[in-house]
Amino acid sequence: MSTITTEALSATTLLRFATAGSVDDGKSTLVGRLLHDSKSVLVDQLEAVERASASRGQEAPDLALLTDGLRAEREQGITIDVAYRYFATPRRRFILADTPGHVQYTRNMVTGASTAELTVVLVDARNGVVEQTRRHAAIAALLRVPHVVLAVNKMDLVGYEEAVFAAIAEEFTAYATELGVPEVTAIPISALAGDNVVDASARMDWYGGPTVLEHLETVPVSHDLAHCHARLPVQYVIRPQTADLPDYRGYAGQIASGTFRVGEEVTVLPSGRTSTIAGIDLLGEPVDVAWTTQSVTVLLADDVDVSRGDLIVPTKDAPATTQDVEATVCHVADQPLTVGHRVLLKHGTRTVKAIVKDIPSRLTLADLSLHPHPGTLAANDIGRVKIRTAEPLPVDSYADSRRTGSFILIDPSDGTTLTAGMVGESFAAPEPVTDADDDGWDF
Predict the structure, then answer these.
(1) Which residues contact 184 (CB under 8 A, 6 or more apart)?
(2) Neighbouring residues of 257: CB distance < 8 A, sequence distance ≥ 6
(3) Region 285-304: what's the mean pLDDT?
(4) Measured between alpha carbons, how far is 331 from 335 in angstroms, rounded to an integer?
(5) Is 140 helix (H, G, I), strand (E, B) or coil?
(6) Residues 325 and 395 sit within 8 Å (Cβ to Cβ)
(7) Bridge-based pairing state of the strands 350-364 and 369-372
(8) 246 Cβ partners below 8 Å, 6+ apart?
(9) What is the pLDDT of residue 46?
(10) What is the layout of strands, in order, in the sheet containing 13-21?
(11) Residue 328: what are its φ and ψ, rounded to 5°?
């Protein structure tokens, strides 16, 4: 395994990315190749894969086994659950979510891509863009993943033909652009042979773009959420009531976005009560400023009624509260979602009763047309819903905040997650199309 110093790691940036694609497009093999060729696999892990491959009569190690860890996955040769892997190069650290390709596990792809800044969508060069490819592109667009990589895999099985790659890349890019995906980077690869994964391929000299790893290492990543709307979902109220801290009352949670400062006027939602931040405790020490992803305890100057599920926000930048939520959803449960369905809606740390008032449309993935008023959403359907909540909720648009603009619907009878929702408009507006400078494929 490559040796990377602690100092080097602290200086590198972090990229969260997910892999997706249809069944047998080679996602797990790509991830295994990426880990193997970047020297991010421990010796004992590689030996275990070699033994497992040999027992199955394979001459070469099956690198897909590095990520397909469940017994059912190895027996069937498919990915079922989301497999998270952590690795690093001297240029960047990575958290990778290898998501399933089967339609019935689309819900796992939603989970894996929900926090991703980049999604790698694999396509089998022999099959081209299929329905599940479109579904994964639509989910990436819905989740506002800023970067999408189209990895056209198994180029070795189509003779490394440029025309095959160009046709697939053109079809996928047109579809993704219509969905509002801001950036698509197409890369021809062979995960099995290692072409253009970590090392450039000598068999595709017609391609002049980056390898998969080069792109992952250099794609711009913005973690600066400090300038976004400041939001602190309250997870816990701390009342020690000890001799040393008889009157301590703090409101603990992880800052979802933005920055909070001592002395700032804040509002507690949904009650609307206001106060001033009297102190911020971080890791047991007082600080003047705290920002996104830090877990803090906020102390207020006034004795305000605050409990778990409330949202602390700057008074000058408070979202509107509403009991009528309109959103785009991906239905993930086997049981359908219907008009009149009584559910629990979990938004941040708050859970309220709700009812599905209307399902205005369902998305048809083939041509992105809308089927009006279907009345129901089946498993893996994407559609628009209108929900009425029993209590007001302070929601942002998902386009403004992936944390406070998202929610899930839960079955109140057994706690099953039914639906993942994104508040506001379905897709980003497509970027204007400009003419290419030349007649060739723009890599």
Answers:
(1) 148, 149, 150, 172, 173, 176, 177
(2) 225, 228, 229, 230, 231, 292, 401, 403, 404
(3) 94
(4) 9
(5) helix
(6) yes
(7) antiparallel
(8) none
(9) 61
(10) 83-88, 92-98, 13-21, 118-124, 147-153, 184-188
(11) -95, 135
CA distance 350 to 347: 5
Q: Number of C-alpha atoms within 13 angstroms, CB side, residue 205?
A: 1
β-strand partners of 13:
92
Let me know: does 125 contact 153? Beta carbons within 8 Å.
yes
Average pLDDT over residues 434-441: 43
* DSSP assignment string, 298-320: EEESS-----TT-EEEEGGGPPP
CB 169 within 8 A of CB 123: no
Strand 118-124 versus strand 13-21 pairing type: parallel
Q: Which residues neighbour 426 within 8 Å (Cβ) at sequence distance 6 or greater?
A: 142, 328, 363, 384
Task: Return the structure tokens found at 121.
Answer: 């969508």
Q: Is 151 exposed, middle or buried (0-12, 13-18, 19+ CB in 10 A)?
A: buried
Query: Which string of DSSP letters, residue by residue, matches 260-284?
Result: EETT-EEEEETTTEEEEEEEEEETT
Q: What average pLDDT is seen over the chain? A: 84
Element (H, E) at 218: helix 212-218
pLDDT in tens, 85-101: 888 999 999 998 887 75
Alpha helices in 99-203 (DSSP H): 106-113, 131-142, 162-179
CB–CB of 392/323 below 8 Å? yes
